[in-house]
Amino acid sequence: MSHDAAPHLDFAGTTPYEDYVQADVLTHLQHPLSEDPGEMVFLVTTQVMELWFTVIVHEWETAIQALGEDRVPEALDALKRSVRELEALNASWKPLGQLTPAQFNSYRDALGEGSGFQSAMYRRMEFLLGDKSASMLVPHRGAPRVHAELEKALAQPSLYDEVLGLLARRGLPVPRTVLERDLTRKYEPSEAVEKVWSGIYGDPDQNAELVRLGEALTDVGELVWRWRNDHLVATRRAMGAKAGTGGSAGVAWLEKRARKNVFPELWTARSYV
Ligand code: HEM
């Protein structure tokens, strides 16, 4: 092919790019509910975040599968990809981070009772992190596919459950009560698990791979916590202490959610190393 060859222009049907990316579908899924020009970026940012949630769920499911089969390097690769994706997700707060109440009010009423609280993909992320709650399925009763996916995620081991299973197979004293816990319930921190992690971190030469795994999980936990806090600050700027469109107390409710630590013992164990 010569250097000045130009791209092909003639295709019998839609372009191969379109067939792969479905850009025509993707770029016609924006239906603002108000006349306000600022609503477009609110809607698209929300859609972009939904797409990142989808990729991150995919990475964590890959990691879960690999951990269950003792393929730690593959699990680490997937977790590290998810860390960079979480960074990109968090960077997408930029266009919404400084909304004034008047700007947000211009389209807020049009949202009705719509709220990110009803995001099924975010809920799947939380379930994969071990933050299970059967009542979070209720809003999705009317959407069979999403409901079935959430029901499956509720019952299956979380990322953290798989990590604890791996530690147990490596001979570390993870209690049976933790390993055989009711997977549909929220993971509760355990002192014995905290000791297992402080032991791993206290002897990094002997536990190089497990320290790398612990640090990848800590990165994930930190970035999820940052997403929650960026959301909280954006919300505080855009609506102060008003109630949320989803019916919660708003900022006060989000503050409580943002206080939770993801993978709790990976944080508390650090006091004992
Ligand atoms: C500045 C714009 C935003 C404001 C003012 C805002 C406000 C709120 C409020 C008040 C809640 C609590 C539930 C409720 O009563 O509605 C909430 C929850 C939530 N929002 Fe937003 N939000 C904003 C942008 C976003 C965006 C772009 C996303 C991306 C998908 C998002 C995702 C969520 C999620 C997932 C929850 C549930 C959190 C949980 O269950 O812990 N929000 N939001």
TrEMBL record:
Residue numbers binding heme: H231
Cofactor annotation remark: Binds 1 heme group per subunit.
Cofactor field: heme
Pfam (any one): Trp_dioxygenase
Listed pathway(s): Amino-acid degradation; L-tryptophan degradation via kynurenine pathway; L-kynurenine from L-tryptophan: step 1/2
EC number: 1.13.11.11
InterPro entries: Trp/Indoleamine_2_3_dOase-like (IPR037217), Trp_2_3_dOase (IPR004981)
Alphabetic keyword roster: Dioxygenase, Heme, Iron, Metal-binding, Oxidoreductase, Tryptophan catabolism
Residues holding substrate: R108, T245
Catalysed transformations (reactions): L-tryptophan + O2 = N-formyl-L-kynurenine
Keyword Cytoplasm appears in the UniProt entry: no
Enzyme class, first EC level, given as a word: oxidoreductase
Highest taxon in the source lineage: Bacteria
Family as reported in the entry's similarity comment: Belongs to the tryptophan 2,3-dioxygenase family.
Subunit structure: Homotetramer.
Function statement: Heme-dependent dioxygenase that catalyzes the oxidative cleavage of the L-tryptophan (L-Trp) pyrrole ring and converts L-tryptophan to N-formyl-L-kynurenine. Catalyzes the oxidative cleavage of the indole moiety.
PANTHER family the record matches: TRYPTOPHAN 2,3-DIOXYGENASE
Protein's name according to its UniProt entry: Tryptophan 2,3-dioxygenase
Species annotation: Streptomyces albipurpureus
Upper lineage: Bacteria, Bacillati, Actinomycetota, Actinomycetes, Kitasatosporales
